[in-house]
Amino acid sequence: MNSVESVLFWISMGIYAIGCGGYIYAFVFKNERVFGKLLALVGLGFIFHSSTIAAIFAETGHLPWAGDYESVLMGCWFIILFTLFVALRRRELQLLAAGTLPATLLMMGFGVMKKQELGPMAASLKTFWLYIHVYFAWLAYGAYILAMAAGVLYLLKNRNATQQRANPVYERMPSLPKLEELMFRYVAFGFITNAIEIAAGSIWAKDLWGSYWSWDPVETWALVGWLEYGLYIHLRTSLGWRGVKLAWLSIIAVIVIFVSFFGVNIAVDASKHVFNAR
């Protein structure tokens, strides 16, 4: 990590941390007037975040796709981009940032502790299928994080409805049926883009390792995560699951995604998917 990139990275992470604390303050102290300022703060952090990626591109000649640190940096960029996009389109969705910001901070914190040396990409990564695979992966995971955030807001608003003194913050949120619909739409979008990611990865694997599928631990966990979201869609459309059960499932399902991306390479040394290899 060079000096310019380091400064930009820590400024963006610091702004996200302040924003995250601001959302906690708003919920605890029932202050709904700060949400516009907090969203502007997230936008400022996104500018520094984007500048960090630009600094990496200027030094290496490629976008940050290769290592844990780089992948997390790019993945979190997509998550914040999605958050800002939906918040600017619909004002009542600003509070989704209360769920996506903590996830972004945890991911960036994990990434910065990993190998951060920048350099040219390995020959095995110089393929068109890398961009398809990674691009659709982050579209999928960004959507899954938004579904998780909508699930968190659903549970909080549902709990608030049972309280004698309602928190005015929750009045700024979409209705419970709308939050449920958002969860489903984000999951459906993620499920489709996740399928494209897996298919592109399989084609890349054929060129790289000689087979479309080898039951590598990362491949297996990625498939489990995709099937888990397929189960979510099935439970809602075919079995009529609604409300709190789906909200919890949208939160729990993200754990499998984190395991497939982060956990496997920590616990298993034999995986072919060594994200920090160059």
Short description:
It is built from eight helices and no strands. The chain has 278 residues and is an all-alpha fold.
- The residue ranges in which pLDDT falls below 50 over 5 or more consecutive positions are none
| Backbone shape | flat
Helical content class? over 70%
Query: Helix- and strand-based class?
Result: mainly alpha
Mean pLDDT across all amino acids: 85
Strand content: under 5%
**What's the SSE pattern?**
HHHHHHHH
Question: What about the largest sheet?
Answer: none
Number of helices: 8
* Count of β-strands: 0
Question: What is this structure's SSE topology?
Answer:
Blueprint: H1 3-28, H2 35-60, H3 68-89, H4 97-112, H5 128-160, H6 176-209, H7 217-237, H8 244-267
Q: Can you tell me about this structure?
A:
It is a single chain. By secondary structure, the chain is mainly alpha-helical. The chain folds into 2 domains: 1-116; 124-278, no CATH class. Helices cover 73% and strands 0% of the residues. The chain has 8 helices and no strands. Helix 3 (68-89) packs across helix 5 (128-160).
